[in-house]
Amino acid sequence: MEKQRRAFMFGFFCAILMALCSRPLYANTVNQTVTLEPNHAIDVKIGVENSDTSLVLSIVEASGDIDMYVKRGAPATGTSVSELEASSDFMGEGPTWREVIRIDKTTNPPLTSGDWYVTLVNWNSYTTQITLQATSSTSGSSAGTTGMGGGGNQQPSAGGAGYNPASEVNFVPETGLWYNSSRPGHGVDLEMSGHDLAAVWYTYNPDGTPVWYLAMAPLNGGKWTATLNKYHWSGTSATPTPVGNLTIDFSSPVTAKFSWTINGQSGSEPIERFYMADQVPAVNYTGLWYNSSEPGYGYSIDTQGNQIAIVAYFYDSSGEPRWALNASGANDLSSPGSLPALSFFGSCPNCQDSGFSSAQAGTITRQFLDSTHAKIGTQIQLPAPVSSKWTRSEAQVELLSKQVDNKRLDLALGLDAALGYLARGSESAGGFMDAFGSLDMSNMENSTCPVVNTGDMSNLDLSGPMHIPVSLDFGSGCTDKKGNHWSGSINLPVDATLSSGGLDATVNLTANNVIKNGQKVLSGTASLVAHITQGSNDLSNGNLRLNLNLVGPGNEPVTGTVAMTFSNVDLSDVFGAIGDSDTSFSPSNLTGMLKNGGTFQITFNNVHYGSDYVSGTVSGRSVSADSSQLSFNLQTNKGPVSGTVGVRSGSQNSQIFLTSQAPMNIMGYSVTFNNLEFDASRCSNSPVSGSVIMQKGSNKGSFQFDGTCLGYLYQPL
Fold it and tell me: Mean pLDDT over all residues of the chain?
């Protein structure tokens, strides 16, 4: 193992670890996937061998509230939390599905050979798919899922957060991006390689220029220490130089104390795991990537839904390590794309925090070939004082680390999440609408794929009740112009009555296992009931009700009810946006309704998209010819969203300005918008100019946007 570790440290990530790169990173890991109905439990049997010294049990994919109970020799029994606790040896009872239990020779009871049983409990009101991962610590032996118990026979009566005492439940840290929310602008990427933890720390030199370091050592228990190395590029290879050490003292799977010594100077700070949402992408490209023909540099890639973030680690003209990143919005990950790269300047770890700034620094191109292979190219020009280029033609790269759960790069205290809630009303609504972006069928090769049937409309009577049996049938499979392969069918019959006074319509959608490129994108049912009356000046009154009982990309449940009432509004902007290729929902879609004066209210009734949910209202009212107000009163799984923001149209139809009347409460952050401009024709849904002030506890900062779409200056206050 020491030889492998030295090989890893010679280059970059697993790129230089030839011994590990030639075999799976988790040779002693197996996964078991089960499907659980609401308030049901299932037992998974784990075979432990004499040579196994530890067993780590992790739920690596699920949604909502899932708990885990472990017992040696027989399954835990019971139909309530208290009964299951009393019957089990170990338990994981967090409020979400992210449960991890570690059992070894020192736990009580200790790990012994034989059969161990894992009881998984689904406390949700919907059916969910759960993937359990079992990892043994001894090379050459496996923790095998040797059998399944009688799943679904137990029906727990109630669920709760429970407790997770350290003496009973041991944990391993979650892999991915960690940061200090009070010192945004730098962070550390933690990844497991076998039993070793690798830490890639992207931060700043004393002169404010970006630099990255790498450390790796075995992870034994909750405290980890490793030598910190800095790399130098000769033009063909990378050479490490020890500059200090890192120590990470984990207090939970998602929180830790991060301590360092660099060139004789020491310091520490709290860090935490950052999650943007729990949405599963159709294909998960998250992990560490490298070019095997030119090791020594690489990329961290995060995908979540149709979002992507890339951190590029490379060198300047003097061979010094540098980094740049992209954290963009919605992307079609199945197609090639070019992303703007940002260079950052900020405070070194031992320097007084003076904030950080960003500047555009070229592009990163990417094309995913499959889940473990891609083509990436970089055209990066670092601004002064570095003033250096890093150019690599698009070349094939490989995934080195295990694919970790959905995560999103965040450098700004949660700014992106805050803007997302304002722009879409909720992450659930946005996620739901983004999910339907994967149903874009505008690229179908010809009219025979899918087969579209609307019945005989030649004698359609518009003066009476109409029934239009609309269906789309992909048959056994068809391919669109972009090379996407489809199968399945969709039925959405329309029943409507049209009169001079308005429209009454019902649409009942049934999706039958619609699959795109081998991934399910939609199944289940939904219904839309609409009543619209025509007022004066082409304004409309009425109400809409949407009932959801669907399964979206990544088998994410999409459930709940969305109701909307409106008076004297212009619906053209909204329906135009729905037909747009960009399915994101922005303030301009809502304020466009109010140009001529009017009101609306959208009510979310327990809307779920995976483990993300929202209930409450978003309302709007016209204030003048070019301005309106949006009020939020939402409860979400990430906290409340409440307050009122003024929305003003600019001189161009694509311009929208947000100004807070008072600080808003967005997921625990106090947020104030100061003339924040969005311009869809220039920057899509990214801020262009203006500022945002955010505060959480004693941490307060200002984000000033510089007019370049992606550039901003952060300053702690």
Answer: 75
- The pLDDT value recorded for residue 436 is 56
- The predicted model gives 636-647 an average pLDDT of 84
In a domain? residue 622: yes
Q: What is the distance in angstroms between the CA of the first residue and the CA of the last residue of the chain?
A: 47
pLDDT in tens, 148-199: 333 333 444 333 322 222 223 345 677 777 888 778 788 888 877 655 778 8
Q: Are 197 and 224 in contact (CB under 8 A)?
A: yes
Residues 457, 463, 465, 470: what is their CA dihedral angle, to the nearest 10 degrees? 30
Contact 270, 258 (CB under 8 A): yes
Report the residue count for the chain.
717
Tell me how far CA of residue 333 lies from CA of 268, 279, 379, 484, 558, in angstroms. Answer: 38, 15, 20, 12, 21
Domain of residue 435 covers 415-716
In a domain, 311, yes or no: no
Whole-angstrom Cα distance, residue 291 to residue 246? 27
Look at residues 102, 125, 148 and tell me which one is the last residue of a structural domain.
148
Averaged over 513-530, what is the pLDDT? 86
Residue 404 lies in a domain: no
Beta bridge mates, 618: 602, 632
pLDDT in tens, 357-409: 888 899 999 999 887 889 999 999 999 899 899 999 998 988 776 543 322 22
Q: For residue 207, give both structure tokens.
A: 């002169």
Task: Provide the token pair at 205.
Answer: 């030199």
Q: Looking at the domain assignment, is residue 308 inside a domain?
A: no
Domain boundary among 148, 168, 202: 148
Q: Which pLDDT band holds residue 304 (cuts at 50, 70, 90)? A: low
Judge contact between 714 and 185, C-beta under 8 A. Answer: yes
**What's the token pair of residue 417?**
């999440």
Average pLDDT over residues 550-579: 73
Cβ atoms of residues 184 and 411 within 8 Å: yes
| CA 76 to chain centroid | 33
Strands (E), 186-336: 187-193, 196-204, 210-218, 223-233, 238-252, 255-262, 265-273, 287-290, 298-304, 307-315, 321-330
**CATH number for the domain including 135?**
2.60.120.380
Q: What is the pLDDT of residue 595?
A: 60
Nearest one of 585, 618, 594, 595 to 685, comparing CA atoms: 585
Flag whether pLDDT at 573 surpasses 70: no
Q: Which helix (H) or strand (E) holds 43?
A: strand 40-48
Number of domains in the chain: 2
pTM score of the predicted model: 0.52
Q: How far is residue 603's CA from residue 618's CA, in Å, rounded to a whole number?
A: 7
Spatial strand order of the sheet with 90-92 comes to 90-92, 66-72, 114-122, 40-48, 144-148
Q: Please calculate the CA angle 393-396-399 and round it to the nearest 5 degrees.
A: 130
576-627: pLDDT as tens digits: 444 343 434 444 555 556 666 788 888 989 888 776 788 889 888 888 877 8
Residues near 407 by Cβ (< 8 Å), separated by ≥ 6? Answer: 176, 177, 273, 274, 275, 276, 286, 302, 304
